[in-house]
Every structure is written in structure tokens, then in C-alpha cells.
Amino acid sequence: MLWFLPVLVQRAVAVICLLSLYPFFLAIRNIFFHPLSKYPGPWLRATFFWPELWTTLTGNSVPTHKALHDQYGHVVRIAPDALSYNDPQAWRDIHGFPEKGKPQMRKDRTGFGDSPDDENILVANDNDHARIRKLLSHAMSDAALRKQEPIVAAHQENLLEKFYARIEGPEKGITDLTHWCTFTAFDIIGDIGLGSSFGAVDAGGYHSWIANLFASIKFLGILRVAETYKWVGRLMHCAMETFPAMQKSRDLHIKLTKDKTLGRMKTVTEREDFMTHVMKYPSNDPRSMNEKETVQTFAFLIVAATETVSTAACGAMYLTLSHPHVHQRLRQEIRDAFPTKESIRYSTIATLPYLNAVIEESLRRYTPAPASFPRRTTVEGNVICGEYVPPNMQVAVHQWSTYLSESNFADPLTFDPDRWLEPTPEKYKNDKKHALQPFGLGPRGCIGKNIFYLEVRSLLVRLFWHFDIELCEESKNWMDHKAFLMWEKPQLLVKLSKRQEGV
């Protein structure tokens, strides 16, 4: 009995007892009485948010989610209010066009560092998103990109010159493709997007803008923790005030983005770029984008275009070089198709069947965005894979788990471009090819698909046409690395040599 203790002490003890019982009652509620109680998953994840947050912070969420799907099936409860899917049907149910008169599922932007004042293609409501997307879709149409092909080719030829110099120089052809593919993609999007290159290839190093952005990717996991546990957010706010360098880094990105974008908006030029289409209408026209939307949208496009292209190109190079029979067959197709370097044209590049199969299989085996981009169910709830999901629940297709699931692809861990060729080999006839959606689908699917294929196809063709390439021993296990929203890519070291005639 505690009757003999002072009243304040008794109350303190009572509070401590109640607090100690809180996790127990929370577990009972979330496991047995929560709206998602019927869905399978570990009880610890059903009870608390921190297991999911921890795997995100440590860069281990991608393999962890796959292991959960392997254990529990096509849908897993990964957090108290969150479901992860690896069923192809979930793509259409979550990301596809909704039934007439019904709203789209809104993007769950938890942990992406968004501000309530943000205005861009990512956070725009359905009407504003459609308006912004319409302008950008013209910029990234096949017709518009055909005009950009010479610019893309010029930047890739500039890269080849640097590689030839490395063959003759002290490097003896040893080259880090991770860095150089990133430099090239960054220069291209700067040029075709905003009218001028960033000069990363010529400098041979990261522009301060992109270096700052990639360094901040890990920080997104901390933001997710801060938004889930408010006391962490308050500590972060104090840290930002105590250590101004943290805020300065973010401000630098905003300033560089704004200066580059506004500089292009004020420039009169006859050469078409993405901004030409965005500025199609005067600022007072309701179809136009305002200054804030333009700056923030281009800041996102530059990062997305650089990262997806460089990651996909590096993944395709690594996987091809790791499989000698694939390497030999792809190189032969490319060199047979183009007798001279001057004959390399995208109209022909796009038709090479084995090249396209290699890229598709690379996107499956090493997709640039391996995790998921979650949505929130609508106020009425939604039916996903035949099961009703209550309102305001986080739902997502986990790409890595989907692409490496035996229920979707035969022998999923094997890299075999043949699965994408026609006629389909007997072994792969039951593959669910529609499960591969690296660009998403529906009204908010990735708008940059055409420019992605233009850059990646062209880069692979030029590299394999000009050089004999060998994977260095240090990069034999290159794909063994972590993911923080994007892959934390290590060096991809290869040895380049001038192609042998007749090979």
C-alpha cells in the first residue's frame, strides 16, 4: 500500500505505472481493434511506428520489406496505419485513374520535407496538377525530344572525349561510371530543361547544387521520424537554430534553384527547351504556371532526371558486364546496327530489341526507385486487390518486392533479358510483365519517361560502340548497398579500352 507516502509521490508513482502500461494497451488496441487488424504482418510493426522508421533511417527498408512480403504474402502491414503490396493489381487500384466522380488517392508526403506553402507538381491538387502536367507533357513529348536529340548527343560525346583521355592518361582507363553518368545526366537536364549546362563533365566533379542534394537524401529519413514523433521535430528545430549550417544547406539549394530557373525565364532564346513550353502562356493566363510553381517543379525535375537516368545507366552497365553472354550479345547488336559513329541515330537506337530487353530487365532487377511512393486512402476508403481499406490509411506498392517476387516473375533473382523478347521463352510465359511499373501509372505517373529512354538508350549504345569495357574486381558486388529513398550508389569501377576493330 502507498497510503503512507506523500500525495505527490503517490501521484507520480501512479503516472509512471500508467505510462509503463501504455505500450501494452497500445499493442492490444492496434493488434486486435485497429481498422487494419485483419491484415498480416509482425505484431511489433502493427503496434509501433519505430520499426519501420528504423529500417528507413538505416537504409535497410528495401530488403526488409521484401523479406516481409516473402513471409506474409502480397499485402503486409508494415506500420500501424500502413500497408505494403507486391501484387500487380495494386498498381491500378492505388495509382490508376479513379472511377468517374471519385477522387484520386492523395500522395502521402510524410518525411519528404514539404512545407504547407509549397507549390509544385508533387503536392499540387488534382486540378493544378493537371494544369502543370499539361505544360510539361508538351515539353517531353516525342516530337519535342526529337529536337533535343542533338543536345543529348553532344553531351554524351563530350563524356566520350573524357573517357578517351582517361585511357591515354595515368588512369589507364580506370573509370568510375557512377560519378561520370551522374555528371552527364546533370548537364543534360540543365541544358534541355533550363537552356544551359551545369558543366559537371568538364569540371569532372559534382556541382555544389547536386552534391548538396544527394547529401541530403539521408536526412529525409530523419524528417519522417520528426513528423511521426513530434518531440523529435522539436529537437530538430532547436538543432537548426543552434547549428545554422543545417539551415544554410537547405537555403543554398533553394537559392541555386531559384537563380537558375529565373535566369532562364528572363532569357530570350530561339532554341527550344522545357522552359519554352512552360512559358507558352502569359503569366496572367490561368493555364500558365506561376513563378513559385515553376521554380519548385524544376528543382524536383532536375533531381529526378539526374538520379533516375544515372542509376538506371549504372545498373544496366553493371548487370551487363556481370553477365558475359549478355555483354557480348548486346555489344554485337549495337556494333552491327551502326557501322560508323556518325550513323548512330535515336530513331534506330529505339528499335534495337536486345538493347530494350536489357534496359527493361535492368529496371526490374535494379530499379532506380526501389522502395515505394505511398498514397492515402480517400474519405470513403478504397478497395485494393479485392479487399476494402478504411479511410486515411497509407498504402503503397513496394517496387523491389514486386519485381523480385516469384509470384510475378519466374526465377526473379536471375538477370535474363530474354524474358522481354518476342516470342517469349517458355520459361517466362507466365511472367506478369505489367507488374513492372518503374514510372508508375495513372494521372500522376512519371512524366519524364521519354527523356529517360532517350538518355539511357543513347548512352549505352555510345559506350558499347566506342569501348571494350571490363568490370573491375573492386566492383564485382556493386549492387550490395543501402537505399535512402534512392540508392546510395558506391563507385562503379570499370576499365575502358579502345574497341578492337572487327569485334
TrEMBL record:
Matches recorded under SUPFAM superfamilies: Cytochrome P450
Stretches that traverse the bilayer: 12-32
Binding residue positions for heme: C446
UniProt key word Thylakoid: no
GO terms, molecular function: heme binding; iron ion binding; monooxygenase activity; oxidoreductase activity, acting on paired donors, with incorporation or reduction of molecular oxygen
Cofactor(s) demanded: heme
Keywords assigned: Heme, Iron, Membrane, Metal-binding, Monooxygenase, Oxidoreductase, Transmembrane, Transmembrane helix
Pfam families named among the record's database cross-references: p450
Family, per entry: Belongs to the cytochrome P450 family.
This protein's name: Cytochrome P450 monooxygenase-like protein
UniProt organism field: Westerdykella ornata
